[in-house]
Amino acid sequence: MIETPTLSQIQRARQRITPCVKRTQLWSSAALSEHLRTNVYVKVEVLQKTGSFKVRGAFNKILTLKPEERCRGVVAVSGGNHAQAVAYAARVLGLRSVVLMPEFTPRNYVDATRGYGADILFAPDVRTAFDRVAEHEREGWAFIHPFDDLDVIAGQGTIGLEILEDAPQVTDIIASIGGGGLIGGIAAAVKALKPSVRIWGVETEGADCMSKSLAAGKIVTMEAITSIARTLGAPAPSQRTLFMAQQMLESVTVVSDTEALAALRFLLERLKILTEPAASCTLAAADRLQERFGPGSHVVLVLCGGNMPTDDLARI
User: Fold this and answer.
1) pLDDT tens digits, one per residue of 132-157
2) Most exposed: 32, 103, 118, 292, by fewest CB within 10 Å?
3) DSSP string over 191-215
């Protein structure tokens, strides 16, 4: 039996992390509503501490550790937002942190993570970084998994609670998928309280391990991540997140980098919000799904992160 977060676990996570994270706003968007011919809202996790939703899960996991489990410090694997989240949470809680990063990690993520006080160790790739976690665990470091952890997923699920409070009329939620912890947590919270809400996943081409796994009915591991949406770059979902996607998602839409970047530009020009492609792809998916929404629909786009490297922004 695969264990998934319960509503009570997500509610307890919210109580636990409230002093540590922002309760981000849910904005109604006239521009997006006109564009998609329905009622559209954006959940602005881009304004969350460290610039993404990841601090929710990081804080919840670390705060559930026993004192003896976290006395040495915490270790994480990430080339993106999870790295910053764990480093920041560790600093706030007075812990040491080590982050194992792929060598190709963009400089802005490296600098920000180091700025939060983490020691950074580079690995040739993500798989090697995960392989090296075991030796840190043997030395007493507590591993904070980016998505395959009940407490991490429950922390991300607090977004779902906030959406339902701010938009109880919600009919549809569109969220990005990297490893599946974000959308799994949101879906677990929302489906427990309002089962009629449809949850739609989105990935980008070249970072689409979940859609490939859903099609195959088993975990599919990607050999390389080629999408510009680097923060969707999990090589594979876990058994837990695949199971949650199978049980709770309507579908997973895979959009191109070109579509994600066009959506990024629209959000920047019309809503004045700078997102990552990993977040703007939710708008690209909404464009693809437009026929599934009607005038009475209330669609929430989860803008999960805004840590766009300025070099990438200038180039594209």
Assistant:
1) 999 999 999 999 999 999 999 999 99
2) 103
3) HHH-TT-EEEEEEETTS-HHHHHHH
CB neighbours of 31 closer than 8 A, spacing ≥ 6? 270, 271
- Tokens 């670390």: give the residue: 62
Q: Is 288 exposed, middle or buried (0-12, 13-18, 19+ CB in 10 A)?
A: middle
Measure CA 214 to chain center.
19
What CATH number does the domain containing 73 carry?
A: 3.40.50.1100
- DSSP β-bridge partners for residue 305: 52
Containing 76, the helix (H) or strand (E) segment is strand 74-77
Q: Is 2 inside a domain boundary? A: no
Question: For 294-309, what is each residue's pLDDT tens digit?
Answer: 999 999 999 999 998 8
Query: Last residue of some domain: 143, 165, 199?
Result: 143
Query: Does 109 reside within a domain?
Result: yes
- Where do runs of H (alpha helix) occur along the chain? 7-17, 30-36, 54-64, 81-92, 107-115, 126-131, 133-138, 150-166, 181-193, 209-216, 239-248, 257-266, 277-288, 310-315
How far is it, in rounded angstroms, from Cα 233 to Cα 21? 24
Residue 44 maps to a domain:
yes
Whether 112 and 307 have beta carbons less than 8 Å apart is answered as yes
Domain count, the chain: 2
Residue numbers of the domain that contains 233: 7-53+149-315
Burial class of residue 8 in the structure, from the number of CB atoms within 10 Å of its CB (0-12 exposed, 13-18 middle, 19+ buried): exposed
d(CA 128, CA 292): 41
**Token pair for 284:** 């690209």
pTM above 0.85?
A: yes
Q: For residue 11, which amino acid is it?
A: Q
Q: What is the pLDDT of residue 243?
A: 98
